[in-house]
Structure formats: structure tokens, C-alpha cells
Amino acid sequence: MPLLTVLALMALPFVEVWLMIVVGGWIGVPWTLAVLVSLLVLGVAVLRRAGTRAFRDADEALRSGQQPRGGLLDPLMLMAGGVLLIVPGFLSAAVGLLLVLPFTRPVLRWAFAGWAQRRMRRMQERMEGEFLAQGGSVPGRGPAGASAPADGPGPAPTSRGRVIQGHFEPVRDDED
């Protein structure tokens, strides 16, 4: 998969130039340049507005001690969309517009949340599998990775590792 990503990123400038030539032949060079410059100006405006809003929300969150109101994904999508609008090209501008438009962001947020949940679940399963392969036990699962019975927690898990005996002595500060 990473090789495919690298090849796509290497081909992107060629596709962008090809699209500029096609659009320039279709609507003319002056109009193509005007569209590219207007997309650049729109990208700068989106970046300024998103950056100001993100800074204001982060400042309020730090002052109140709570998480930002709208979350972090919307400002990140706006900033990424603004950067993609600044980059000259029609393909990057189309993706940037998808990230910037208010009616496409909820769909993209939903898709990203689903992707992140699937990724986290696969990562957790892989880590539990590696942990079980090393002889550990995962809470709620037996040593072989089988699920715990549904009718109750069952007996307390037994440790198969080493137990180190010891005791704890509190530190005394009265010698100062």
C-alpha cells in the first residue's frame, strides 16, 4: 500500500499539469489562470478564517479547561482544504473544496470516524494477538484468546508469570 501511495503522489503533478492544459484548451489560458488565481485567493481566505477560529476555540478551551467545542477534525479539514486550494491545480482544488464545503464535511467526518474505529479495532486485535503469543493474558479472554463466558466473570485469572515478593516503606520527611 505505501508503494501505491508514493506512486500516486509522484503522478499527481503530471495529472495536475495535464488537467491545466486540457482546461486551458477548453476555456482558454486567461480564464484558466483567472480560475487558478481565484482558487488561490479562496484558499488563503479559508486558511485565515479557519486558523483564527481554531486559535480562538483552542484559547477558550485552555481557559475553561474543557475540550474545544467543535472538536479538532473540522478545523483540520478546513486548514487542509485551504492548503489544497492554494496548491495550483484542479484536482487538488476539487479535493480542497470537498474539505471546505459545509455540507460535505459531516459526510467526511462520518467516513473518517468509521475508518478510525476500524483501524483502532484491527490494531487492538493485533496487539492482543501478539500479547497472547508471548504468554500474556488479556482481561476478558482466556489464555488462548477465547472470550470469557457470558454468564459471569468466572474464577479470578491466575498469573503464569513470576511473582516478586517485597514490602513497601514510606519515606519520612521529618529528618529535614
Automatic annotation (TrEMBL):
Pfam families: FxsA
Low complexity compositional bias, start-end: 144-153
Region (Disordered): 133-176
UniProt keywords, alphabetically: Membrane, Transmembrane, Transmembrane helix
TM annotation in the entry: 29-47, 72-91
Protein name (database record): FxsA family protein
Taxonomy of the source species: Bacteria, Bacillati, Actinomycetota, Actinomycetes, Streptosporangiales
